[in-house]
Amino acid sequence: MINLTAYKEYWERLVKRVPLITGILPVTVDEAMAKRITSLKTGSITLFVLPPAAESEGKNIDSFKEGNECVVFVMEKYDPQRRDTWSVLESSQVITEKLKLCMLDDLTSGCPLMRFDVSTLNTLPETQFFAGFAGWSVGFKVIT
Questions:
Q1: What is the Cα–Cα distance from 142 to 111, expressed in whole angstroms?
Q2: Residue 53: CB partners within 8 Å, gap ≥ 6?
């Protein structure tokens, strides 16, 4: 299982390398989180980080390892009266691609936390996220 503190700190450092991302928000499921998300400023581009889920991939105790299913969201808060979802996806796609390039750079440089399987890297458009957010989810699997 990935250490949550190290995982959050990784994303905090990565966001500094992608200047168009205005903030990072580790996401949990509770009432306070919903209020925090909806109170973000229109025009902000936030990286939402979900805690990873771990699943055993080992066949025996001597070679135990886990696959950690990870998902982050690059989301822009927008006013649906002034912009359509497609234009938000277009602008946030550029930022999402920069984020993925940073992840790939970290993988090739031997970052101990981001040992992810490149074949599991998936990017999906996300719309109607908390009404007024659109962007991209980036999923991948880290082996620990």
A1: 12
A2: 68, 69
